[in-house]
Amino acid sequence: MISKSQISFIKSLHQKKIRKEQGLFIVEGLKSIQEFINSDYVVDSVYYTENLMPKLGNLSRNIKLHEISDAELSKITSLNSPQAIIALVRIPKQSNLNTKILNGSFLIALDGIQDPGNLGTIIRSADWFGINTIICSLDTAEAYNPKVVQASMGSLSRVNIIYTDLGKFLSLSSLPVYGAQLKGKSIYETDFGQEGIILLGNEGNGISNELQSRISYPITIPRYGNAESLNVAISASIFCSEIRRKS
Amino acid sequence: MISKSQISFIKSLHQKKIRKEQGLFIVEGLKSIQEFINSDYVVDSVYYTENLMPKLGNLSRNIKLHEISDAELSKITSLNSPQAIIALVRIPKQSNLNTKILNGSFLIALDGIQDPGNLGTIIRSADWFGINTIICSLDTAEAYNPKVVQASMGSLSRVNIIYTDLGKFLSLSSLPVYGAQLKGKSIYETDFGQEGIILLGNEGNGISNELQSRISYPITIPRYGNAESLNVAISASIFCSEIRRKS
């Protein structure tokens, strides 16, 4: 049982502005919530329906627990098929961006990715391929949007997402920048070495003009058919796959 | 200007049942509609707002044209940001499935893919990598769902989608079946030869027990990090990429 004001508070966290003000975001589903509990994130509170009680296991005493009804769940969920458990998790302070720390590894840089599903899927693929840092331009979709959290399938708890002025970041970094472009060297023939930045652009417009000059190597995924382009999450994942295949 | 009954007719095509009854589906956006016009599909009618008129070009006289207002557009669209033009396109008769015709090429088989965005993205990637046929189990999402059409970005006009009893199809086909599994031979070390079926399973449950025995080679995309799985459209696309890289 939760109060009306709690319900409207949780619902308000569907909005970016309120998430920012309150420093909280919503995670849904037992598996994802467990991954956040086992991560550096701080889980503030958990709302669960009766059936889920036995599966919850031992939770830290610092997490506030609330049993709710199915009717209450349907009011606070952002999913079409809610998963019987919702957590409020603290938005972490963004870690300071030390460009030197990132040397010797691969990272992904996103220039204006708009679709939350794409961002979440990129986070999930990065986690699969062991890429732990994603640098986002300030106009990229917000990582704590419920649709991003959902599509990341728990991987958001493990991948470091940093929002920054991407042009400035790329100008300070000494890593080679591999730009995903429609024209460039074939990804299959590219030697990525042991470190670098995979730069991907906006769904409709690609990498912005401002960042084009920061690209060290324009790289393309060769086309064998007729589609005009690939989905950006697909491109990002094929880059990750090729880098790991060669490493 | 369109009538109230036309508006409710078009809106009714957001439902699978009505699409099936009427044999029509909705395509939105100028680029996608032009690709359907240039394909074997039959475009029945086009609804466009004034601004789009000059871009329409020469259309076949058989296509019924309707200029509509922005207010009317907002009533019939299935998109959050409608694109000023909507077409009704005929659902084609499903081509007969001749397993022998498919020999000598690669095709994708989908076992119970539920998410329309995933199906649309798979169609787009198949088109990019020159894979022209996708065989879907009967419980896979319907290809004429507006979300599938949208995610396919026009590629639905070029890729042949066939719904059938997948177990029966695989038992009749003589092509090797490469099953995307969490355990199996590394995709990077697999020689795919010149023909085969890439079999992908449901988002939550993978390939069904019934079809497991039809897999010739269980193949995995090696994991380098901690995510539990990859999105199915990502897996499908990495399979396509690896097949083309080696061909």
Describe it:
The structure is a homodimer of 247-residue chains. Chain A is of the alpha/beta class. Chain A folds into two domains: 4-90, 60s Ribosomal Protein L30, Chain: A (2-Layer Sandwich); 106-246, Alpha/beta knot, CATH 3.40.1280. The first copy, chain A, has helices at residues 4-12, 16-22, 30-37, 70-76, 116-128, 146-152, 166-172, 209-212, 232-246, and strands at residues 24-28, 43-49, 64-68, 85-90, 106-111, 133-136, 160-163, 177-186, 196-201, 217-220. Chain A has a six-stranded parallel β-sheet, with helices on one face. Chain A has a four-stranded mixed β-sheet with strand order 1-4-2-3. In chain A, β6 (133-136), α6 (146-152) and β7 (160-163) form a beta-alpha-beta unit. The longest helix of chain A has 15 residues, at 232-246.
Which features does this protein show?
homodimer; 247 residues; 60s Ribosomal Protein L30, Chain: A; Alpha/beta knot; four-stranded mixed sheet; 31% helix; elongated
Level-1 CATH class name of the largest domain in chain A: Alpha Beta
Could you give me the name of the CATH homologous superfamily of the largest domain in chain A?
Answer: SPOUT methyltransferase, trefoil knot domain
- Kindly state the percentage of residues in helix of chain A: 25-40%
Strand order of the largest sheet of chain A: 7-6-5-9-8-10
Q: How much of the residues of chain A is beta strand, in percent?
A: 15-25%
Output the radius of gyration of chain A: 20 Å
Order of helices and strands of chain A: HHEHEEHEEHEHEHEEHEH
- Intertermini distance of chain A: 52 Å
Integer average pLDDT of chain A: 94
Describe the oligomeric state of these chains in a short phrase. Answer: homodimer
Provide the number of structural domains of chain A: 2
Largest interface: A-B, 37 and 37 residues
